[in-house]
Amino acid sequence: MIVEDLIEKDYFSLNSSMNFKEASSVFNESKQSDLPVIDDSNYLGIVLFDQIKGREDSLDQISTFREQYIKVAVSLNDRLIDAITKMTHLGLHSIPVLDDEEKVLGVLRAINLWNLFAIKSSFIQPGGWIILSMKKSDLKFSEIAHIVESNNMTMLVHFISFASGIDLIDVHLKLDRENVNELVQHFQRLNYNVTDVIQAKKYEDDWDNRFDQLMRFFST
Asked: Among residues 26, 32, 97, 142, which is most buried (max CB within 10 A)?
């Protein structure tokens, strides 16, 4: 899928003539943490709410820190994975969509990407999670898959998250059963380091954290 499939044409924005107080009001109304700055359909960049914190009552214009606007955008034909990567690297929850003349057509919001991913993937299917921690050099995915299959289970989703600066990874496995205790014991007998098990209610409570881990995967 491409950006055009999920573009939102109804969105909040700022303009460079706004003062900090006016911009703060738009942030509060939108309940968003980042907003595009647009003057007469011309895209200038993105402002973060964190950039105006402490100055919410100031009458200075936000153009005073124009050089600090985040200059990033996507086009209609960009792949969704490329948009996700850009947003993740910069910690953004939305990103403007521009035409060939760099006029703003709308925005792409992370929540819509997440909803699409949840619907089209196996994340929302019943099942438990097992998280294994190991050195990157020790990863043998074919062996892990064989262990799962020998316990008559199927991996619905799997991904890897990396620890910054050290040779450690977490391997996240989503299984097709909610009760994964026997599989956990099998991994432990083989000296795998099982760092977390998420089942039933605990899985529901940890849903947002699983998505955060996946987004960090895209940023590596």
From this structure: 97
Residue span of the structural domain in which 109 resides = 3-117
Q: How much of the chain, in percent, has pLDDT values that exceed 70?
A: 85
The residue type at 100: D
Identify the bridge partners of residue 39 per DSSP, sorted by sequence position. Answer: 42
For position 29, what pLDDT does the model report? Answer: 95
Average pLDDT, integer, range 60-75: 94
Question: Are 95 and 170 within one domain?
Answer: no
8-state DSSP, 27: H
Count of domains observed in the chain: 2
Q: What is the CATH number of the domain that holds 129?
A: 3.30.2130.10
Higher pLDDT among residues 163 and 196, named by residue: 196
Report whether 174 contacts 133 (CB < 8 A): no
Domain termination site, one of 101, 117, 133: 117
The answer to whether the CB of 171 falls within 8 A of the CB of 185 is: no
Q: Which amino acid is at 73?
A: A
Same domain, 87 and 142: no
Q: How far from each other are the two terminal CA atoms of the chain, in whole angstroms?
A: 22
pTM: 0.60
What is the Cα–Cα distance from 24 to 36, expressed in whole angstroms? Answer: 13
71 alpha-carbon distance from chain centroid: 19
Same domain, 141 and 110: no
Give residue 157's pLDDT band: very low, low, confident or very high (50, 70, 90): confident
